[in-house]
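Thread: "does anyone have the structure for this chain?"

Original post by V.I.:
We have the sequence but no experimental structure in hand. Need at least a predicted one for the grant figures.
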Amino acid sequence: MVFFNQKRDTGKYYIVDGQQRLNTIKKFYKNELKLNGKFSGDDNHNKIFNGKNPISKEQRNLFLKYELREYMFEDYSDEEVRRVFCLLVFRLKNYYQSKGEYNRFKYISLFTV
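Reply from O.Q.:
Generated one for you, tokens below.
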């Protein structure tokens, strides 16, 4: 998921949330990032997108076809963006706590103002 805020007066889009995610995807695609077997399985350890020691053609196709969800805000103020994310984080915290995953969002107080 990536959240953007469009400022119509300038025509620019700003990444509100998801910049690290987008940078990681870009780095992997440009072979600047290797997979870690801990998260991708031993067979994919140290593999890159293509070049030396690449992932399989099927994996590349899946990667390229993956649909990244994006949400667009239009002309939200900084305060409105903060309120939306406080609500999202609060709901996620409650969801994971209801599943017994209490430590998943223990840093939550950093975001709620």
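V.I.: this helps a lot. Residues 12-69 form one domain.
O.Q.: and Strands lie at 2-7, 12-17, 70-74.
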